[in-house]
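Per reviewer request, we include the raw input and output of the structure prediction for the construct analysed in the revised manuscript.
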Amino acid sequence: MALDVTGKIILLLPETSGQSKAGKPWVKQEFVLETQEQYPRKICIGLMGDKVQELKKYGVGMEVKVSLNIESREYNGKWYTNVNGWKIEALGNAPSYSNQAPETTFHADPEPQFTPDSTTDDLPF
């Protein structure tokens, strides 16, 4: 089953990696998306392989559209469901986001200089 879901990223979970039984390395990262409906829902979505690198463009608070597959499997009489994303894109004209803290420089305006013998009054009342 394939579908698209839109919402805001509210949490990025840590990246995990390992090695398959065949000896191939794998990497996975999950994130939580909150839908923007009357009754918002939270969905934990997993990305695998090169899609993990793509997720690094986005950060908490960004609105995105995710194409995903939902899959369930049985193990020892219990059923487990995975929500796997295969495409993620920013909504609208939202800029991509870096997970690194932005470097910002704050420049304060110099404080105005007032003198007690000033004869001009520029207040409108």
